[in-house]
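FAQ: What does the model actually see?

It sees only this:
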Amino acid sequence: MNTKMYLMATKDWKAKDINTESISHLIIAFARIGGDFKISDWEMRLNAGDKNDIPLPDIVSSPLISVDKWAEIEKIRAKNPKLKIIGAVGGWGAEGFSDMAETPVTIDIFTDSVAEYVQKHNLDGFDLDWEYPTAPRGIIKTRPSDRENFTALLKSVREKIGPEKEISYCTAAGKWFLDAIELYETIRYANSIHIMTYDMAGTWDTETRHHTNLYPSPADPESYKESSVSLSADYYLSAGIPPEAITIGYAAYGREFRGVASNANNGLYQKFTSKNPHIWQGGTIDFDTLEKYYVNKNGYTRFWDEHCLAPYLYSQTERNFITYDDCESVREKAKFAKEKKLGGIMCWEYTNDMQAKLMKTVYDEINK
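And it is asked to produce this:
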């Protein structure tokens, strides 16, 4: 079973900081789609206006994967020649997918550049993180034709990089994504589907809840009953996707909800203050920080949900609730993946857990 780790190239790390012993795949995040429809290590498009009406300007804003970082990646490869290093394009808010995939010509331009990119950096494969085709659940331009175009894009990538290289793509955890693409057709070209089984809760909700729970709970409000890692995997299995093609995810970060209205149930399934839902950027707190400053410290108490097999933190003084993954919860996810004979487990993202403590736990459980 594979253990995959995403690594943000814009973060502060060196090859010596990356422990590869428990990792089968290191996925370098993220390249973008440029205004010329070629893959680029620079941010080439700035978000402007309504996603479906106003075209985005082709403006270079910042480097995403520097030459220095590629040199460090080569050092990582030298440390562990068995490690598969994968290039990734896209990410949350990354524009250009719908326009690029709309015509055979622009698909050809992009996938030619992908083939050159894979060869230039000696990559073992390529990962597509299009958030999201067809459904306007993200913040990028969408079209109904994205559904068929996504398949055509994968087919072209496979033809250009060859059968030996790995291809993966990311999907949302919700059941709705099964209709956003031609799911079963994609497996003709992709080796692995990475289900982003995290961010299933956030400050867009009306109540606190788990954001990466393994199982649903009888206590879940009705609108939450379709959200869990196990249900997400089952959706894909029920659709006929082979288990070895499915990779589930865990989060090396937590999500905070401030101004929780009540300490009933230790802050779980409670209203929170919508005007000031979080103080951390994006409402996320990395695992290293949680362990050092929050877990059973500074007025925060760790609790365990026996139904969901998920931890959470609550501070009655601060009226603050945090949902996250820890070693106990990722161990349960590893057990689940083994039982279901899934293809692997992946994590977002390495620099949130610099000792790879969570991935080591997953690796040890898988290899018992």
